[in-house]
Amino acid sequence: MAEAGTGFLEQLKSCIVWSWTYLWTLWFFIMLFLVYILRVPLKINDNLTTVSMFLNTLTPKFYVALTGTSSLISGLILIFEWWYFRKYGTSFIEQVSVSHLRPLLGGVDNSAPSAASAANGDADSSRQSVSECKVWRNPLNLFRGAEYNRYTWVTGREPLTYYDMNLSAQDHQTFFTCDTDHLRPADAIMQKAWRERNPQARISAAHEALELNECATAYILLAEEEATTIVEAEKLFKQALKAGEGCYRRSQQLQHHGAQYEAQHRRDTNVLVYIKRRLAMCARKLGRTREAAKMMRDLMKEFPLLSMFNIHENLLEALLELQAYADVQAVLAKYDDISLPKSATICYTAALLKARAVSDKFSPEAASRRGLSTAEMNAVEAIHRAVEFNPHVPKYLLEMKSLILPPEHILKRGDSEAIAYAFFHLQHWKRVEGALNLLHCTWEGTFRMIPYPLEKGHLFYPYPICTETADRELLPSFHEVSVYPKKELPFFILFTAGLCSFTAMLALLTHQFPELMGVFAKAFLSTLFAPLNFVMEKVESILPSSLWHQLTRI
């Protein structure tokens, strides 16, 4: 009985809500009926006649001025709307309507989650957005002195943004400092050096620290920022390795004596891993690829828990250079796992290996006639998977967009990650015969599988909406950031553009052909009001002419 009573009350409430929703229609018809009934005492016909006589006395110049002013105003609105859309990605009029006018009119977003579902899902959604919009250290970042600075000297452009370099400074303070640095003079100087914004001040502080002691972090800073060639950087990193290994062995023996010693050992471990990784990257850049691959393998075996450095991505690139595709597949089998975070390197390298098996004989004409084979289908599905993860990469691999130097930090699934991947892996795709042709023929099919990528994904989470904003902070201003999905022009921009063009055309035609436009305007208005006149005549024939007098008597 209680459930039946509750159901009846809910049904009654829904009926009341429905009636109030459509009550405005009844009110509208009542107002029309009252206006018709009161047309005689309100002298509506006389007022319409007066207005018509006034309009007939106006010259064509007035209409030219009217339409011209309308065109000017709508053009100014169009320019403002376009500027606002380019800067903020939304329509100003639409934003004001949704934010301010809709609540006043009692509008409710039916798609908004209920309070209960919001309470249950807020934590998951926020955790997902934070993880997807997290900025990561670029595993293949270049050397500032030997590569980034040389680019600046040649072109006069700054390849790194302040935001990117600030993130690097925070990384250096996190990995290369600890709470006990003030006890050692050289480490205390380097603790301040990592916070310096001026590069020359950092370099001077590193030299000052080396005068006091053999400091591994001082050698790291000089190798990264002062060395102008990779050979010089490698020499400094070898000196840093010698100093770093000694500190690591000493702290390893004392790590269990207290929290401070444990923190110091953690710092020395980070320093040692960083030095060995950069030495391996130096060997790779100097052409000693096998040596670099061996150093990376040894480093991964020695420190298997430090997966945050993503050393396997450096190893994958070196193995692809060696064309050791079996070894590449073995690394992917370990790291391309559903429980591990994905990256463009993982997804596109897997696609490259699948494409390598069929790309040399692939022909779109032959595939359309006979259909795709199992191997070709696997390759196409791998490409679709990679494109869904990062849709910006294919334009760089197919050289539809120009490459720039990759930043020191990347946003996964963003344009910055696409640049970092294509900068180092484009040569590997070119080396596999037909791989780029297969990518060119199939990559756009991914977007037909995911028509609404911001709402629902296919193999991954929906595409995060934060990538454009973060990439604009990470990438230099002279680079045109790739945006996905492409934003459609808001309705109000299209509307104001059409209104501006239409009123400008009317102003021009009225100025050139005043008499013809007058005839056209009269014909248009008579046609427009013909249905209304017909309805009025029918109503007058049905209702008695003395209805108003009868109502006044009542």
Task: Outline the structure in words.
This protein is mainly alpha-helical. Among the domains are: 146-291; 323-496, no CATH class. Helices cover 71% and strands 1% of the residues. The protein contains 27 helices and two strands. The protein has a two-stranded antiparallel ribbon. Helix 4 packs antiparallel against helix 25 and helix 15 runs antiparallel to helix 16 (325-335). The longest helix has 29 residues, at 60-88. The chain is elongated and about 105 Å long. The model is unreliable at 105-131 (pLDDT under 50).
What can be said about this structure in brief?
By secondary structure, the protein is mainly α. It contains 27 helices and two strands. The protein is elongated and about 105 Å long.
Describe the secondary-structure layout.
Elements: H1 2-21, H2 23-37, H3 44-57, H4 60-88, H5 92-104, H6 115-132, E1 135-137, H7 144-155, H8 162-176, H9 185-193, H10 199-212, H11 216-226, H12 230-254, H13 259-285, H14 289-302, H15 311-321, H16 325-335, H17 344-356, H18 364-370, H19 374-389, H20 393-397, E2 409-411, H21 415-431, H22 435-442, H23 445-449, H24 467-474, H25 491-512, H26 514-542, H27 547-553
Helix pairs in contact: 4-25, 7-11, 9-10, 10-11, 11-12, 12-13, 13-14, 14-15, 15-16, 16-17, 17-19, 25-26
